[in-house]
What does this fold into?
Amino acid sequence: MNSITLLGVVSSAPRKGFAGKTPLCEFDIYVSSPGTGRDGPPKQEAFTVTAFGALSEALLPLIQPGDVVLVTGRLRQYTLPSTMGGPRVQACTVSANSVTFAPASVAAKLKQAVAISDN
It folds into this structure.
């Protein structure tokens, strides 16, 4: 089964759209993960999250940059066409089944970890 759970910091305002007649909401999150090697600094990975239907409508007025969220969903992989004769690029997004706002104590610790890895 294709399932992923991510704890990350929202890095963009939500973008409203539609898939046919179904409302959707997209936003980006940064997720910190351990660095390479014993003393390597943590690294950040960016993910685009898409929520559909009622979840999308519930998130649009609430979610904002800086929020810490726990996202559970499925990875959706796709291929971007080549540009200027270069190779095609593989990319993925997360199709959200649920989005939970983290408690303030968890949010503060995660934001501190993200700030450390930025330096």
